Amino acid sequence: MAEIPVAVSLSVSTTVLKADEEPVPLALLDANWQSEMEDYATYKALASGESDTRRRNVMRGLAAVERHHAELWAGEIAALHGPKPAYNGNANGWFDLLSGLPGGVDIKLHRLRVHERGEIERYSKQLLTLKNEACQKILLEVIADENDHYKTLSGLIRARPPLPAMDGSQARTALAALLAARRKRHPEAAGWLNDAVYAAHDGLGSIFGIVSGVAGATLGKSHYVLIAGMAGMVGSALSTGMDAYLTSRSERELYDAGIARERRAVDYDESESREVLALSLQVRGLPEDVAGRLSHLLAEDKEGFVKALARTTANLSEEDLSNPWGAALTGFAATAIGAFLPIIPFFFMSGLSAIASAAIVSLSAHFAVGATRSLMTVRPWWRSGLELTAFGAVEAIVTFSIGMALGHAVGLR
Fold first, then answer.
1. How far apart, in whole angstroms, are the C-alpha atoms of residue 363 and residue 303?
2. Cα(2)–Cα(74) distance, integer angstroms
3. β-bridge pairing 15-16 and 24-25
4. Residue 48, SS3?
5. Ordered DSSP codes for 152-183
6. CB of 330 closer than 8 Å to CB of 192
7. What residues have CB less than 8 Å from 373, skipping those under 6 apart?
8. Second label for 259, Cα 20 to 30 Å away, from 9, 128, 244, 306?
C-alpha cells in the first residue's frame, strides 16, 4: 500500500464543464479526496498500534477502502483535467486525537462511528448538488461503503472478548452468571410465576362461576354458597396440582426417553448422527461448512453430542424441565388462593350484600391477575387487567342468571 504523499494542496476553485453536464467544482472533489486520505491515514495508524488481531484486521480493511475512495476522487479530478491532489493533513490522520481520548478502545470506536455517520450525511447532501453522472456513481459507492463501516464499527463496540477455555461445569456457572446479569438489566417473570398466575386465574374463574350460580339459585344464602365454594376450591386445587405434577413428570420422562433414543442412535451409527446434526443446524440457518465443523466438534463429547441431537431434532431441553413436586405445590397453592377469594364475603354476610361483595372482590382479583399477566407479555397492564375483568363479569352474569333460573325451577327460593 503506497504511502501518503505529504505536500501543500493547491487551492482549487476552478469549475470544469463537460458536455451536456452541470459544472463540477474541483475544490469540492479535492476536499473529498483530502477527507478520504485523512481517514486512510487514521485507520492505518490505528491498525499499526492495535494489539487485538480482529480489530487490527478490521482497521486494515477500513483503511484499504478509504484509500480506494481517495483513488476514485483522484480519478475523477484527473478526468476533469484538474491538478493532481496532494495530501496536506497529518501523516497519522486524527489518530493522535483518538489516542488522547479517555475511556479505552470503545470510546475510540464510538468516535470513529460518529465520524462515519457524519461522512454519510455529508456525501448524501452532495448527491443533491453534484449532478455529474460520474460523481453520482462515486457518491453512491462511497455512501454504501461508509454505511458498512458504521455497522462494522458498531459490531466491534458490541463485541466481547473471547471466553477462556472451560469445562462443562465452569461453562454452566458462567452461563448462569451471564443470564442473571441479563435478567437484572431486562427483568422477566420467573417460570413459576407464570404457572402460578394461570393457576390462580383458573381457580378464581371456576369458583367465581360456582359462587355466582349458587348465589343466583339461593339469593345468596351463605351456607349453600360456602359448601359449594369450599368443595369446588378443594377439588379444583387438587386437580390443578395433580395435573401440574403429572405434566412435569411426563415432560421429564419424555426427555429421558429422547436422550436414550439419541444415545442408541449414536452408538449404532455415529457418522449418521453427525450428518443429522449438521443438516439440522443448516435448517436453522448455519452455513453448510460451519454446521459440519460444529457437528464434528460436538461429537468429541458423546454426552454433549447426544443432548445437542435431542435439542435440535426433538426440541428437548433439560433447562426447560421443572420439578414435579414444585410444580404441583405451585399449582395447588395458587389455585386454592384464587378459588378462596370469591368465597370470603360469605363467611361474614349473606344475601344480596354478600353477592355484591363477592362480585367486587372477585372482579378486583380478576383485574389484579390480568395486570400480573402483563409481566409475561408486552401488553399494557391496565389493558390486560380490564380484559380479564370483562371476562369475569360476563361469566358471573351468565352463571348467576342460570342459577336464578334453576333455583326458581327446583324451588330453592
1. 51
2. 15
3. antiparallel
4. helix
5. HHHHHHH--PPPPP--HHHHHHHHHHHHHHHH
6. yes
7. 197, 201, 384, 388
8. 244
The pLDDT tens digits of the residues spanning 227-274 come to 999 999 999 999 999 999 998 999 899 999 999 999 999 898 888 888
Distance CA 36, CA 72 (A): 10
Which residue in this structure is represented by grid cell 352463571? 399
Distance CA 10, CA 14 (A): 11
- How many Å apart are CA 258 and CA 268, to the nearest integer? 15
Instruction: Report the alpha-carbon angle 104-106-111, nearest 5.
Output: 105
- Do you know the residue count of the chain? 413
Q: Where in the chain is the domain with CATH 1.20.1260.10?
A: 15-158
Q: Rounded to whole angstroms, what are the CA distances from 38 to 6, 151, 257, 329?
A: 11, 20, 64, 68
Give the chain's radius of gyration (CA, Å). 36
**Separation CA 87–CA 93 (nearest Å):** 10
- Under a CB-based contact definition with an 8 Å cutoff, are residues 166 and 133 in contact? no
Asked if 130 and 117 touch (Cβ cutoff 8 Å), the reply is no
Cα 244 to Cα 332: distance, rounded to the nearest angstrom: 9
**Strand pairing partners for 15?**
25
Q: What is the residue whose three cell numbers read 467544482?
A: 25
CA atoms within 13 Å, Cβ hemisphere of 352:
0
CB 118 within 8 A of CB 48: no
Q: Which amino acid is present at 91?
A: A
Q: For residue 116, give the nearest of 92, 86, 82, 142 by alpha carbon.
A: 142
Tell the CATH topology of 15-158. Answer: Ferritin (1.20.1260)
Contact 41, 89 (CB under 8 A): yes
Helix, coil or strand: residue 52: coil
Single-letter code of the amino acid located at 341? L
Q: Phi and psi (nearest 5°) for 154?
A: -60, -40
Q: What angle do CA 232, 234, 240 make, to 5 degrees?
A: 95
3-state secondary structure 302-346: HHHHHHHHHHHHHCCCHHHCCCHHHHHHHHHHHHHHHHHHHHHHH
Closest CA to 201 of 4, 399, 385, 397: 385
Q: What confidence tens digit (pLDDT) does each residue in 274-308 have? A: 888 888 888 888 888 888 888 888 888 888 889 88
- What percent of the chain lies above the pLDDT cut of 90? 34
